[in-house]
Write a structure and sequence with these properties.
The chain is α/β, with parallel strands linked by helices and 332 residues long. It is 27% helix and 20% strand. Bound molecules: iron/sulfur cluster (2 copies).
């Protein structure tokens, strides 16, 4: 296990990835938010909401680093160094150790022993920490909400932030007695956590991200576009696909791109919901923005809002009213 000084060194040049598994209503997303709020450096967190409702499995992700440039990604964490499981019943449903590198830490709210847990997740090369968070939650909070308690166990094995830093974050988020009880529960969790350190350290410099893959829904009619994505077109099922629908007729604005101002940052391309930002492959082998596809641009204005250099603007499609007052003698 790394000491507080060692993890501080790691954070200078690396990003530390965390993943939380919970059930809807257990506060997994709040736990990830609190990590970022308690951390002294830079951090981002994102939830993954599927068909979430109370009790369904949820995930949330955190990236932390002292280096601002390393935490700009908002994508899912695929290679978590620390995984926290708030509900033991998830172990039978979810591969909670997916993507973890050797030496990663799996932290579970359970009364099970650590070796049995290694067997259940099928990994002998990861460290395990267990905490009976449910009992602490019921004793101290009076409700089975384990999100802050699991953070106590995380502090114990990661030293990513201190109990005082987490307490400050909790006091900013919760009020009065609730904050006090959560801090009490966290302190107890730090003491009660069972640590099974197998002596393998994480190689934080490894890129453990799973390569991105094109989604292949496997349904009849889905075809891959050469630009990106898929569209549905099976003439036997429906007569035409969405790429042939003129969504450009939906909006009232004409979107205008200024090539001179554009820095080719591609943020508009990522955010456009209609693949209406055109790009061309240049002689340098890279893709460069080349214009707006007005056939598909539906004037949502996302690109205008995100462009950092105001290279995109808008103009009302319709001209001024030309004949507001009928000419004398006109009409019927
Ligand atoms: S206005 Fe919306 S649809 Fe049109 S190019 Fe911009 S982001 Fe795409
Ligand atoms: S967001 Fe702006 S600067 Fe970036 S590629 Fe689009 S138009 Fe160009």
């Amino acid at each position: 296990m790394l000491t507080p000084e060692q993890i501080k060194e790691v954070l200078k040049n690396n990003v530390v990835n965390l993943r939380f598994h919970a059930r809807g209503g257990q506060g997994g997303v709040t736990a990830s938010n609190l990590c970022v709020e308690a951390f002294y450096g830079y951090g981002v967190c994102q939830p993954l909401f599927g068909a979430e409702r109370m009790g369904s499995p949820t995930e949330s992700y955190v990236r932390l680093s002292s280096n601002e440039d390393l935490v700009r990604s908002n994508e899912q964490v695929y290679g978590p160094h620390f995984v926290s499981v708030l509900d033991p019943s998830l172990l039978g449903e979810i591969n909670v150790a997916a993507g973890m590198p050797k030496g990663g830490w799996l932290i579970v709210n359970t009364v099970m022993d650590q070796v049995s847990l290694q067997d259940i997740v099928g990994r002998k090369d990861i460290n395990i920490a267990t905490i009976d968070a449910t009992r602490i939650a019921l004793d101290v909070l009076g409700r089975n909400i384990t999100n802050t308690i699991i953070l106590g166990a995380l502090i114990r094995v990661s030293h990513l932030f201190t109990v005082d830093e987490l307490s400050d974050a909790i006091m900013r988020r919760f009020k009065g007695a609730i904050a006090g009880k959560n801090i009490q529960a966290i302190k107890q969790a730090i003491e009660d956590t069972c640590v099974y350190d197998i002596g393998i350290e994480i190689d934080f410099s490894l890129d453990t991200k799973v390569p991105w893959q094109q989604v292949k829904p496997g349904l009849p009619g889905y075809k891959e576009l050469d630009k990106a994505g898929v569209w549905y077109c099976d003439e036997d099922v429906i007569p035409y696909g969405s790429s042939q629908v003129m969504t450009g007729s939906w909006g009232e604005w004409e979107i205008i791109w200024d090539k001179e101002k554009c820095t080719d940052c591609a943020q508009c391309w990522y955010i456009c919901p209609d693949f209406a930002i055109l790009r061309e492959k240049g002689e340098d082998g890279l893709w460069h923005m080349s214009g707006i596809d007005n056939f598909h641009c539906k004037s949502c204005q996302n690109c205008i809002n995100i462009c950092p250099v105001e290279a995109i603007s808008k103009k009302l499609k319709q001209g001024p009213a030309s004949c507001a007052v009928p000419e004398e003698g006109g009409g019927e």
